[in-house]
Design a protein that fits this description.
Length: 219
């Protein structure tokens, strides 16, 4: 199964990608997680992309494409892409690459969400600065308040979740999403899903739509 998740910042792409990858037994590839780990490790790439992330701007296409193609090449059993592609150029280059290795995307799920719900998801989000696990104070709290279930680290607000950066990220998303949606619609692999439910409801809805489309043997 080769799946890509589209949707505004905070829509639940990362949360759902982890669950879907586990359920479908494929690799979760989050462009944001990959960039954040380069940034916190202080690698040359991390230094290069730091300002883009901190200001809610998109990292240049050429860099993103190279980075993600490398990761995809290391995921022979299938993948869930989370946060990539997010420009038309990225989608076109990804399609070219996947066609060249005869592994095109099966389905692209486009999460849509009401702005008010999106705000609540941002406000309550807490993340583990070490393993990247994502929580929500109301709907997905950790077992011990303030600590990551996986490694016991103190949870934090993601640095780019400050209101002015969130605003920029959402604006950036709105500017780039339409051509992306049109590209996948034209390929006949786009499915739009209202992501307003509980995490369990949204996971079930994605799995059902994959099944309805007859996509993948492991669903
Ligand atoms: P990222 O890391 O890709 P965004 O902005 O696209 O960042 P973000 O913020 O990571 O997306 P998300 O993954 O869609 O949001 O959402 P999430 O973290 O899973 O969930 C949000 C909250 O809602 C959490 O508290 C969670 O518990 C809750 N929640 C989740 N699902 C559900 C649900 O189903 N129901 C309910 N009730 N709650 C739920 O990108 C970061 C930066 O990296 C660069 C850019 O600078 C970008 O700003 N970047 C790229 N640049 C260029 N090209 C690319 N392809 C790039 N990718 C990343
Ligand atoms: Mg995410």
């Amino acid at each position: 199964m080769r799946l890509a998740l589209l949707g505004p910042p905070g829509a639940g792409k990362g949360t759902q990608a982890v669950r879907l990858a586990h359920r479908l037994r494929v690799t979760h590839l989050s462009s944001g997680d990959i960039l954040r780990s380069e940034k916190s490790a202080g690698t040359a790439l991390g230094m290069q992309i730091r300002d883009f992330i901190d200001h809610g701007k998109l990292v240049p296409d050429a860099l993103m494409i190279r980075l993600m193609e490398n990761r995809i090449a290391q995921a022979p059993g299938g993948f869930v892409l989370d946060g990539f592609p997010r420009t038309l150029v990225q989608a076109q280059e990804l399609a070219r690459f996947l066609d060249s290795i005869r592994r095109p995307l099966d389905v692209v799920v486009n999460f849509v969400l009401d702005e008010a719900i999106l705000s609540r998801r941002f406000e309550g989000r807490r993340v583990c600065p070490v393993c990247g696990s994502v929580y929500h104070l109301d709907t997905m709290p950790p077992e011990v308040p303030g600590l990551c279930d996986q490694d016991g680290q103190a949870l934090v607000i993601r640095p780019d979740d400050q209101p002015e950066v969130v605003k920029e990220r959402i604006n950036t998303y709105r500017r780039s999403v339409e051509p992306l949606v049109a590209f996948y619609e034209q390929k006949g692999i786009l499915v739009t899903l209202n992501a307003a439910g509980t995490p369990n409801e949204v996971t079930a809805a994605v799995l059902k739509l994959l099944q309805d489309r007859g996509a993948g043997k492991n669903v």
